[in-house]
Structures are given as C-alpha cells and as structure tokens.
C-alpha cells in the first residue's frame, strides 16, 4: 500500500494547528481546484471523534463522492480519519502534532490502496501518489498560513 508522509513546521500553538486541521471549512478552502463540497454528515466547523463527512469533488474530470469518519482522536496531538465509502479500496489519514518551543510540527501520514489490483498499482506509480501528495501539501500550506497569521 502506498504511504505519503508530509511534515509541516508551523510557527503557532499546537491547539490552533490541531483545530485548523480538523476544520471542514478550511478543508473546503484548500480544495477549490476540485470544486469540493461537504454534502452530508458534518458539513462545517470542527469534526469530532465518531463523526462522518461526505465529500463531493471532481478528480480527473469525474465527480466522486467519498465518506470518511474520524476513528481516533487524542486532542491536541493526534486524530485519524478513514474512508467508509468511496473510490479507494482503503484509506487512512493520520494527523500528528508535536509542540516544541511554541511551534508545532504537523505530520500527515496518508495510507491508501487503489481499487483494480494491477491497474490500481500502476495508477499509484504513474500519477495518483503524486496527485494525493499535492492535495495534502496544498491543504497544509493553507493551514500553516492561517495559523501563522493569528
């Protein structure tokens, strides 16, 4: 299974970074290029443990719907969301936060498995891992910018 790991140092308190990272409105702002909307479950504000959100977005020219659920949370250090319905065979997105000297290291670990066996593995190698990395990096840059402006 492919795994993406991104580390983002942020000059802001851990609680702020944690809350910005689980804010659905911030997520939507970071995915304007995919015309993403939250259409069911928790559709705005801070998502909590056990809550789900259903996203609708356009990826690779195709409208897709994906539902994820927050399955673990240890505020303000960690939360994980996992796909319960969608195009992937599996995905888990872990959000880790470590505070040091008033700053925060935000680490994303995104583990996924594409459908379609060999074709999915080929898609991962050719473009999907890079595409998902870019989506996560864009999201993180917006979180970093907002946190450091406050």
TrEMBL record:
User: This protein's superkingdom?
Assistant: Bacteria
Which SUPFAM superfamilies is this protein grouped with? Bet v1-like
List the protein's name.
Ligand-binding SRPBCC domain-containing protein
- Organism equals Mucilaginibacter gracilis
């Amino acid at each position: 299974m492919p795994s993406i790991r991104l580390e983002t140092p942020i000059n802001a308190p851990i609680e702020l970074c944690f809350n910005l990272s689980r804010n659905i409105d911030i997520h939507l702002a970071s995915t304007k290029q995919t015309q993403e909307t939250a259409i069911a479950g928790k559709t705005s504000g801070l998502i909590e443990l056990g809550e789900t959100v259903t996203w609708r977005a356009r990826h690779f020219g195709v409208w897709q719907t994906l539902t994820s659920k927050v399955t673990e949370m240890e505020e303000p250090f960690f939360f994980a969301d996992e796909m319960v319905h969608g195009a992937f065979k599996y995905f888990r997105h872990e959000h880790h936060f470590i505070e040091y000297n008033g700053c925060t290291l935000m680490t994303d670990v995104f583990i996924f498995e594409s459908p379609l066996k060999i074709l999915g593995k080929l898609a991962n190698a050719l473009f999907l891992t890079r595409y998902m990395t870019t989506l996560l990096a864009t999201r993180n840059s917006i979180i970093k910018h907002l946190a450091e402006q406050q």
